[in-house]
Amino acid sequence: MRGRFYMLHYRPNGLDTARLGVVVAKKLAKRANTRNLVKRIARELFRRNRESLPAVDMVVRLHAPVAKATRAEMNQDLLALFQRLPRQ
C-alpha cells in the first residue's frame, strides 16, 4: 500500500502480534538525523497502535522526500496506512 510519504508491505505472520521493520533510503533522506527521525516516528506510531493491528509482518519504506513534511503529516500518513490493513 502506498501513502503520501510511506509505502507499507505486509504479510500474515501466524503470531499473536504484529511486527515492524523500517527502511529509509539515503536517496530520499540525505542526512542521518532525518533518516533516524523518520524511523523514530514510524516505530512510535507502531508502538502506540500495536494492540489494534492485525497479526502481520510489516515493512514500512519511505518513498517520497520528507524535507518539507511536518511530523503531523507523516504520522497521519502512516496511521492511514495502518487503518487500511485487512483485519482477520
TrEMBL record:
Any one GO CC term of the record: ribonuclease P complex
Pfam family, one: Ribonuclease_P
The EC number(s) this enzyme carries: 3.1.26.5
Gene3D superfamilies found in the cross-reference section: 3.30.230.10
GO molecular function: 3'-tRNA processing endoribonuclease activity; ribonuclease P activity; tRNA binding
InterPro entries tied to this protein: Ribosomal_Su5_D2-typ_SF (IPR020568), Ribsml_uS5_D2-typ_fold_subgr (IPR014721), RNase_P (IPR000100), RNase_P_CS (IPR020539)
Keywords assigned: Endonuclease, Hydrolase, Nuclease, RNA-binding, tRNA processing
Classification via SUPFAM superfamilies: Ribosomal protein S5 domain 2-like
Secretion signal, residue range per the UniProt entry: none
Free-text function comment from the UniProt entry: RNaseP catalyzes the removal of the 5'-leader sequence from pre-tRNA to produce the mature 5'-terminus. It can also cleave other RNA substrates such as 4.5S RNA. The protein component plays an auxiliary but essential role in vivo by binding to the 5'-leader sequence and broadening the substrate specificity of the ribozyme.
The name this protein goes by in its record: Ribonuclease P protein component
Organism: Thauera linaloolentis (strain DSM 12138 / JCM 21573 / CCUG 41526 / CIP 105981 / IAM 15112 / NBRC 102519 / 47Lol)
